[in-house]
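=== Structure Prediction Worksheet ===
Name of assembly: unnamed complex
Input type: mixed (protein and possibly other molecules)
Chain count: two
Listed entries:
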Amino acid sequence: AQSVAQPEDQVNVAEGNPLTVKCTYSVSGNPYLFWYVQYPNRGLQFLLKYITGDNLVKGSYGFEAEFNKSQTSFHLKKPSALVSDSALYFCAVRDPQAGTALIFGKGTTLSVSS
Amino acid sequence: EAGVTQSPTHLIKTRGQQATLRCSPISGHTSVYWYQQALGLGLQFLLWYDEGEERNRGNFPPRFSGRQFPNYSSELNVNALELEDSALYLCASSLVLGGQETQYFGPGTRLLVL
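=== Predicted Assembly ===
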C-alpha cells in the first residue's frame, strides 16, 4: 500500500539557518510527490511538486525539494529560514489506486525562532 | 482569480443531526475532493467527484456522502453525526491531467459535534 512518512513531529531552527523537513514514501510505481503548508486555522497551500525530470524541484516562498529515488525520499529544504515559515508542513503522494486522491503524511510542525 | 471557497467556516451540530458543507472550485476545475483533518488522525481522503460523478471514496462509512452540481460546486453531507466527526473538512479542486495535476485547497469548514 502507498504511504508517506514524516519522521519528525517538530523541527526547530533559528532564523537565517537552513531548514530541512523530511519525507519518505512508499509507492508501487512512479511517485507523484507534493508538499503543502498549513498556517493556523487555514487550509493547505501548495508549495511544490515532483512529477518527473530534474530531481531538484523549486517552489513557492524559496522552498525546494530533492527527490531521491534510491532513498525513496522527498525532503523539503530552504537555505535561510524566516520566522514567517513557522507552520505545519505536509508531504503527500498520489495514490494511483484511489484515482487522483492524495495520501498525506502526519505533518511536521516547523518552528523558526528569531 | 478566486480560489476554492467553502461554507460555512464553522458549523456546530449535535450528535445524530445532519451536516451539509459546501465547496466552490476554482473556475475551470472539474474535480472536487473532500478530506477530513481530525485531531490525531491527520488528513484523510473522503470523496472525489469529477464531471458530476463520484469517482472514488475513502475508507469512510456511507453516512458520508455528497454530490457535484453542473457548475462543479459540491456539497458534503454527513448524516447521523457522531462526536468523532468533529474535524476540519477541506475541499480541494483540480483539473484532471493523468495524475499530475495539483490540488488546490479551500480554507475548510470546522465542524464541531456536541
